[in-house]
Each structure stands twice: as C-alpha cells, then as structure tokens.
Amino acid sequence: MLRVLTSTLRFPRPWKPLETRGCSSNPGAAGREIQVCALAGPNQGIAEILMNRPSARNALGNVFVSQLLEALAQLREDRQVRVLIFRSGVKGVFCAGADLKEREQMSEAEVGLFVQRLRGLMTEIAAFPAPTIAAMDGFALGGGLELALACDLRVAAASSAVMGLIETTRGLLPGAGGTQRLPRCLGVALAKELIFTGRRLSGAQAQALGLVNHAVAQNEEGNAAYHRARALAQEILPQAPIAVRLSKVAIDRGIEVDIASGMAIEGICYAQNIPTRDRLEGMAAFREKRLPRFVGE
Q1: Which of 177, 204, 220, 284 lies 20 to 30 Å from 160, alpha-carbon distance?
Q2: Which residue is catalytic, options 61, 89, 138, 143?
Q3: CB contact set of 208 (below 8 Å; sequence gap of 6+)
Q4: Quick check: is 167 catalytic?
C-alpha cells in the first residue's frame, strides 16, 4: 500500500522563473480573456489569474478554458509563486458558470468532451502546487462555484457574492467536480440538499455553512473579497514554501484514504521536507530569536 501511495503522490518539483511577469494596464488587452499577474514589492510571491470576459460574465467557454489551462501551466513552472489568487475583472461577477449559449451549438458528443475538459481544468486547479484562493466578489454559479471549490481557500463578499450549484435548475447536474468536492467540503447531506434544490447562497450564508473561509462587507469598488484574499495570501507568504506545498499534498491526499494510510502519506511528505535548507533556516532562526528567511530550497 505504501509503495502505491508513494508512486501516485505529486510532490512539488523544482520550478523555473518566467521570463515575462506582470500585468498590462488593460487586463482585456489583445482579446485575452485570462490575464496572468505577478505582484511586486511586499506582495512579491503572490500571483493572480484575472478572469476578464465581460460579454459573457466570465462564462466557461472554449477560449476561456484554454487560456485558463495555459495560465496554470505557465504559473506551475514559476518557482517564485507562493500563492495564487483567482479573481475577476468583471464587477459583480466571479464566474457565471458554463457558457450555455456556446454549448447549445455543440453536438452531444462535443458536450461530453467539453465537460470532460472542464473536469480536467478543475483537477489542474486543485493540483496546483502552491495554495490557491478564490476571491468571489460577485456571482459564482455552477461551474463558477466548481472552480472556487477546486481552490484551497475561498473568500466572498458577504452580500454581493451569490453562489450555488444550480445545474438541476437547467436540466443538468454538476459535471466539473461539484458532486465530489461539495460533499467533501460540507458533508454529504448538506451537499445533496444544495445540489438537489439548486439553492443560491449569499457570501454570509456560505460562510455560516463552511463553504467559504471568510465573508467580508463589500466596498464601493466592489472588490472587498479580493482585498481580503490578498491579506490572506500575505499571511501565507512568509512561511516556508516547500513546507506549505508539502502540507497541501499531505492534506489533499490524506483526506481521500483511511487514517493509517493518511499517516503514511504525512510521513512521506515530512521526509521530503527534512533535507531542505528552509527547515535548517527555521531551526536557526528559532535558536537566534529572529525571523526566518525562507528561500524555497
């Protein structure tokens, strides 16, 4: 059993820095629906995926999904990324879910392939090595909530965020991981109730249920959840990045198995961390009564 677990675990691997970093002043420039941003100064180490498809309320269409996958592949290879935030450039919307207008033009076979692709996208988000945070300042419905569920942490505006797996109200069922991730987040009975009814929740209601980590009062700019997500990312930044990523592996893989196997996974992850420079730096900093300077090695 331990040998099988070892062979299937995806440990963080060495990353190489990107040649080009940062955002343009116009996130929708050159027809891009997805913009990759790397923050600077005290926020260095925080990367953002900015979703900007205002004409379709950030609906998950073919181009949108392709650009999301491209952005994830790009960021996965960037060793500077310690936290990744998903946010929207469209006021009042995080992601409105599947692009049903586009889907109407597909054959049954094409629909099946596209939903499979969506499921793969959510798997890539969930498997991203660094912690991920969804900043939901507006609507996150259907596939939009499934995208947020694939993230490690979720922050929502208490009043303006509206979320739900509403597929049954459209004659569908969640097909991009919602039937699997929502029960793991909230428990089986509550997840069934929300999916069977297609109920929509405010950010405050979602926090009360444990669906989001934080719900914040909205501001005039309509980006309060994003600012709270940034603050949360800043709490993660100073911590040892390899230890954080290995903690993510241990939690994500351990929750899927029995406790004995989970303890074995934790042991494997801990062993991976022992030879790191950061572990030695943490011990030295404690001994010398100073803040550690972690480098991710």
Answers
A1: 177
A2: 143
A3: none
A4: yes
Is the whole-model pTM more than 0.85?
yes
Contact 203, 136 (CB under 8 A): yes
Cβ of 185: how many Cβ atoms within 10 Å? 15
Is residue 143 part of the annotated active site? The answer reads yes
- Active-site pick, 146, 156, 176, 254: 146
Residue 11 is inside which H or E element, if any? none
Per-residue confidence of the chain (297 residues) as pLDDT tens digits? 444 344 444 444 433 333 334 554 344 445 789 999 999 888 999 999 999 999 889 999 999 999 999 999 999 988 899 999 999 999 999 999 888 788 878 888 888 888 899 999 999 999 999 999 999 999 999 999 999 999 999 999 999 999 999 999 999 999 999 999 999 999 999 999 999 999 999 999 999 999 999 999 999 999 999 999 999 999 999 999 999 999 999 999 999 999 999 999 999 999 999 999 999 989 898 998 999 999 888
The first and second tokens of residue 276, run together, are 């790191």
The active-site residue, picked from 47, 98, 225, 264, is 98
Alpha helix (H) ranges present in the chain? 2-8, 62-76, 100-104, 108-126, 143-150, 178-186, 188-197, 203-209, 224-236, 241-254, 259-273, 277-288
Catalytic residue status for 256: no
297 is catalytic: no
Token pair, residue 129, equals 């090595």
